[in-house]
Amino acid sequence: MPLTLLALWQIACTSGFFPPQVLVPPSGVLSELLALGRSGELQRHVGESLGRLGVGFVIGALVGLAVGAALALSRWTEAALSPLFLGLWQVPVIAFVPMLVMFLGIEERFKITVVAVAAFFPVALATFDAVRGVPRAWLEVSKVYRLTLPQLIRRILIPATIPAILTGLRVAITRAWLVLVAVELLAADSGIGQMMEMGRQLFRIDTVLAGVVVSGLIGFALDAGARAIERRATRWKSA
Amino acid sequence: MSAASSPKSVRIAVGLLAPVLLLAWWQLQATAGDARSLAFAPLGSVGAAFVEQVESGALVFDAVATLSRSLFGLIIGGGIGIALGVATGLSRPLDRLLGPLLHGVRQVPLMGWLPLLGLWIGAGEGSQLVIVCLSAFFPAMLNTHAGVANVETRLLEVGRIYGFTPLQRFRRILLPAAMPMILTGLTQALAFTWIAAIGTEILLGTGGGLGVTLQNAQMQQRMDLILVTILVTAVIGFAVNQLFLALRHHLLRWQPKSL
Predict the structure, then answer these.
(1) pLDDT in tens, B165-196
(2) What is the mean pLDDT of chain B?
(3) How confident is the model over B135-146, as a mean pLDDT?
(4) I need a labelling partner for B168 at 20 to 30 A (CA). Which of A116, B59, B80, B198 fits?
(5) Which of B18, B123, B217 lies at the smallest CB-CB distance from A80?
(6) How many domains does chain B have?
(7) A149 CB neighbour count, 10 Å cutoff
């Protein structure tokens, strides 16, 4: 079925129904992708984007895990931080962009911060819910066995919370990717978003479409990869 | 003594501590007088900016522009999404035909369509509206599809016994049964259109709206204006969401409470 679609697209273009300024055929997009790959430009843009995504995601996810767990485990932390947390959560991450630009400029640390912020909230919320969802009885058992805090975390909290936290991490990485592409459109000298924006300014519809395809493939791969990890990690549950 | 057993007022006071400390730190940075003060607007000027924005009517204008953009996206994008969700939920061939295309389109980060749309219809109001519609379309379609495709067969069998026409079957069985999922889709769609409207406003900076003001304020280095606008964004987003949840509750009042 997707093949039929591609064929239709190709035919629509080669028959002259769409002039090449409006839509280039799939073959045109493919040859542009190959050209970008040969010149190493594609690898550079994708590498830059994924690097930002990786660093920002790790930072945001780690802070999210820590904050989510702290909010869930200590009532005082929850009372102290949750109003601030819930208030900030009402604001779309992208609305923080102009403010972060003023603080951090438009260089790497700005982009990494935006990714980290985007990843932070889903992870923190998922961790909070997951830790709160651990049955009280399990914690009581840990008290009976006099588990130390590291033991408690390793033996009970991690196994009990991993499925929900992995879901949170998956949501976080797909959101982070969305937001990263958006800020790369706004301000960057490299990255897949910038590649598309440059293509637009140069009226290169093939470059823009190549960027659309690549960013879609990366988004798909991130989501599919995260789902595969989720399935592997939760296999014991169904057994 | 644990927080759970302490009086509510203590908990609220504790909860206010972090925001107050944050504001105090902010004010300290703002009045430090060196290069930092540029980014950290003093709280007094944030208040002044708020009053200024309200009095000039700019705040209301922006809020209405962004809200009407989201609402447009919700109605058009969400409407098409529900229609296609019903159609693909009822017809397997149509689902097979459209599924791959729609899922392909869905993989692309939403704002990633902006450069392409910019080439096609210009980087202006049109592109903004298409993105906002697209942001509402997918949650509406996917949830409606799931709701319609998973209607319990015993309900459909009852319809067959009563000799319902296809139209009756749709109105009396499919629509009510899928309604919770449709409303879930619309609630998600609403949140997404709000984000997409502000996002496209920031990225394109045209047509007025809260995002445009944010972007302009950043160019003019007006942190006070940025803070006011973010605050308004948060309040409106929260209020609209609550309103919608109340509406959902009202529409689904026939459902058992457990759902």
Answers:
(1) 888 888 888 888 888 899 999 999 999 999 99
(2) 86
(3) 94
(4) B80
(5) B18
(6) 1
(7) 10
Q: How much helix, strand and coil, in percent to the nearest 5, is found in chain B?
A: 85, 0, 15
pLDDT band at A237 (very low <50, low <70, confident <90, very high): low
- Decide if A81 and B18 are in contact by the 8 Å CB cutoff: yes
Domain of residue B234, residue span? 49-251
CATH number at residue B180: 1.10.3720.10
CA distances to A42, A188, A224 from A191, in Å:
9, 7, 22
| Cβ-Cβ contacts under 8 Å, A181 against chain B | 109, 111-112
Q: How many angstroms separate the CA atoms of B68 and B75, rounded?
A: 10
Tell me the average pLDDT across A60-65.
96
The answer to the question of residue B33 being in a domain is no
Which residues, 6+ apart, have CB-to-CB distance to B173 below 8 Å?
B151, B155, B156, B158, B159, B164
A216 at B interface, C-beta within 8 A? yes
Beta strands per DSSP E along chain B: none
Residue with tokens 């002044």: B48
Is residue B229 a contact partner of residue B213, using CB atoms and an 8 Å limit? yes
Whether B258 has a pLDDT exceeding 50, the answer reads no
The domain made up of A47-233 has a fold known as MetI-like fold (1.10.3720)
Q: How many residues does chain B have?
A: 259
Q: What is the mean pLDDT of chain A?
A: 87
Q: Please report whether residue B31 resides in a domain.
A: no
The model scores a pTM over 0.90: no
**Is there a domain that residue B82 lies in?**
yes
Q: Is residue B257 part of a domain?
A: no
Output DSSP code: residue A156: I
Single-letter code of the amino acid located at A116: A
